[in-house]
Amino acid sequence: MNTRIPLANIRVVLVETSHPGNLGAAARAMKVMGLSDLALVNPKCVIDDEARARASGAVDVLENACIHSSLDAALADVALAAACTSRRRDLPHPAYTPRQAAPKLLGVAQSQPVAVVFGSETFGLSNEQLMKCRWLLNIPSNPEYSSLNLGSAVQVLAYELRASLDDTPLALPEFELAPHEAEQALLTELEKTLIEIDFLNPANPKRLMPRLRRFFAKAGLEKEEVAIWRGVLSAVKSRLTGLR
Q: Which of 31, 146, 199, 207 lies at a 20 to 30 A Cα distance from 163?
């Protein structure tokens, strides 16, 4: 197998990283395992001499990192995003260990970009950010002390992805998954339509949209399925216009 193809399609996304040393450590962890696509979302530090020193021979990965103002922008073309978090909270997303998730991530990455998302050192990922990802990834750790350095967490994920290339036969997905941008646009349009038909009260939304987001996250929308849903919403709006 040409390992460069799936590994080149795996994006490591760091959200609001505050320590330059962690930027360098993450870049080094990536390059050692053959990953090179690094995205930084609203970083709270700059790529300085400390970051370059920690990157060691992976300064190229660091210097080529794309910087985005939002998580949506970093995930725009991604077919599958998995968020690394130590807490499940109340989100019933599919949750896996890195070892369990690696074969599926690599399978999709044979033809489409995928992303692994890491939060800030202090606060991790917010519920809103987690909702933008389809899966949760939990690194097994000591329950009495589960705090893991950001660079170490990236290393664990990168290692499992690399190791899985040799251990697991990868199968191409049967259908093309919808990119993040298309899925988010559908959810935005769905919310507007539900408000328009008085199914959703914007003044008291409760948890309707988060639950619908979870539903679609668990389903894993394909490109054609997004097109069908957009067609349904368009037909609903057309009928509403005719009734007025």
A: 146
Instruction: For residue 76, give Cα distances in angstroms to 68, 115, 132, 180.
Output: 11, 10, 11, 5
What pLDDT digit, counting tens, does each position of 75-114 carry? 999 999 999 987 655 566 788 999 999 999 999 999 999 9
Q: Do both 204 and 122 map to the same domain?
A: no
In a domain? residue 127: yes
Return the CATH number at 26: 3.40.1280.10
Alpha-carbon distance of 47 to 61, in angstroms, equals 12
Can you give the residue range of the structural domain that contains 11? Answer: 4-167
- The per-residue pLDDT for range 11-25, each reduced to its tens digit, is 999 999 999 999 999
Name the amino acid, one letter, at 184: Q
Contact assessment for residue 86 and residue 124, using Cβ atoms and an 8 Å cutoff = yes
Indicate if 103 and 189 belong to the same structural domain.
no
CA distance 17 to 229: 36
* Residue 165 to residue 115: CA distance in whole angstroms: 17
Q: Give which of 87, 235, 98, 107 is closest to 165, Cα–Cα.
A: 107
